[in-house]
Amino acid sequence: MRKFFGPYKDLPSSIYVIFFARMVNSAGHFVMPFMVMFLSDKLNLSTEKTGYFMMLAALAYVPGSFIGGKLADHLGRKTIFILFQSLAALSFIPCAFLGNSAVIPWLLILSSLFGGAASPANGAMVADLTNSSNRKPAYSLLYLGHNLGFAVGPMAAGFLYNNHLPWIFIGDALTTFLSLALVMQFIPETIPDEEKIEEIRDHLEINERAEGGSLLSAMIKRPVLMTFLFCIMLYSFVYVQHIFTLPMQLRQFFGEDLGPKYYGFIMATNALTVVIFTTLVTKLTLKLKPIFCVGLGGLFYAAGFGMLSNINHLYLFLFSTFIWTLGEILVGTNAMAYVANNTPVTHRGRFNAIVPMIAEAGHALGPLWTGKYLMKHSILSVWQLTLYCASVVALLLFVLHYVENTRVQIATREEAQK
Residue 101: left if φ>0, alpha if ψ -120 to 50, beta else—which one? Predict the structure, then answer.
């Protein structure tokens, strides 16, 4: 067991606190996985209107993320994270008492705005607490913690959905506050001052060293990273289909009663696969570069989502979930490690803001485009599109990996000749 969990044994104690906080928060992550069903079933919105509100919720994340990232680089990671995550949780509480009010979608959009503002501070905090040598296992452990909680949350929400709907909103808020209590008690402020930045300068990778100037100037100097983020945006278009198209497909195949419960089983399968296989996948790919692992994840996306166009039995849906979840593990445990390894220490909050902003573009436009597409096409044809998209993005990432390796080899030879 020590050998199996070896990648996590030397991580800072603060990372373990964040691990438990994320696990608790995810155990109460009830609302967003069932947002599509709630809007269409409880509020009787059309497919196009449901896609519209899903798009607004995702788009609201963008300005929130930008504001939160800027504040995290100037006011501190911990303060900004606790403030906005608390506001996001408070936005859920009125929803429990409003019945089928048309106000609820707007409160969910407001919660997404606040959640977007909290996310960059959280990401910058993790980057502050780690370095290039331990980031892959750190992000892997945190990803595992999220899904340990998520293994329970959606399944519980699936049973609460029909008969105890208000508790979906209340439970989400309460577990968020509990996770914040852990951060408040055990995590110090992590933003480095000028003296600390100078002290650690020689221990940072070249792309992590402090820089002056704006976010835009720092990004322009990193063209490979920008292309990488574009690929992540396309991946998010593919991945968002599991919370938009998949619930509709299950309701169409299995009916109004079984559809939500089966979706809960699928989401639990997704989380359990992460729980069981994240450590193994991390161990097997520990020596591979993050960008290559993210490309490999796209191949699993292509296979897992692509097969949904030709199945109609629950056990095949569960097998499909297992396949695309392996892709999720590879992408989820490596994408942010790659970004952190290429982010200047002075811009971590803002870079952790721009990454979700770019990714959320695919997440936001996915439901809108898919909703319009479904007005004239079948649900099954959506999965063929995901197959082609994920395959092309994976190929592009492998090309970027080759380009990056070539640049490193050239730089190494030039340095050796000096």
Answer: beta
**225 by DSSP, 3-state: which?**
helix
Give one word for 397, left, alpha or beta, with left for phi > 0 and alpha for psi -120 to 50. Answer: alpha
| Cα 269 to Cα 147, 266, 273, distances in angstroms | 10, 5, 6
Q: Which amino acid is at 73?
A: D
Q: Within 13 A of 297's CA, how many CA atoms are on the CB side?
A: 30
CA 106 and chain centroid, separation: 22
Residue 418 class from Cβ within 10 Å (0-12 exposed, 13-18 middle, 19+ buried)?
exposed
In this prediction, residue 33 has a pLDDT band, given cuts at 50, 70 and 90, of: low
DSSP 191: -
Amino acid at 357: M
pLDDT at site 81: 94
Q: What is the CATH number of domain 7-417?
A: 1.20.1250.20
Alpha-carbon distance values, 116 to 58, 204, 254, 277, 360 (Å): 9, 28, 34, 28, 10
pLDDT in tens, 341-398: 888 888 888 888 887 677 767 777 787 778 887 777 788 888 898 999 999 999 999 9
Residue 250 exposure: Cα atoms within 13 Å on the Cβ side: 26
Residue type, 244: F
Rounded to whole angstroms, the Cα distance separating 301 from 297 reads 6
The per-residue pLDDT for range 283-302, each reduced to its tens digit, is: 899 889 999 999 999 999 99
Number of H helices, E strands in the chain: 16, 0
Q: Are 351 and 210 in contact (CB under 8 A)?
A: no
Q: Give the rounded distance of the alpha carbon of 117 from its chain centre.
A: 14
Domain ranges across the chain = 7-417
Q: 362-401 b/e with 16+ CB inside 10 Å = b?
A: bbbbbbbbbbebbeeeebeebbbbbbebbbebbebbbebb
For the beta carbon of residue 104, count every other beta carbon within 10 angstroms.
Answer: 22
Exposure of 373 in the CB half-sphere (CA atoms within 13 A):
17
CA distances from 327 to 140, 300, 346 (A): 13, 5, 31
Helix, coil or strand: residue 345? helix
Task: Check the CA dihedral 49-313-235-302 and report its sign.
Answer: negative
pLDDT in tens, 135-163: 888 998 888 888 788 777 767 777 777 67
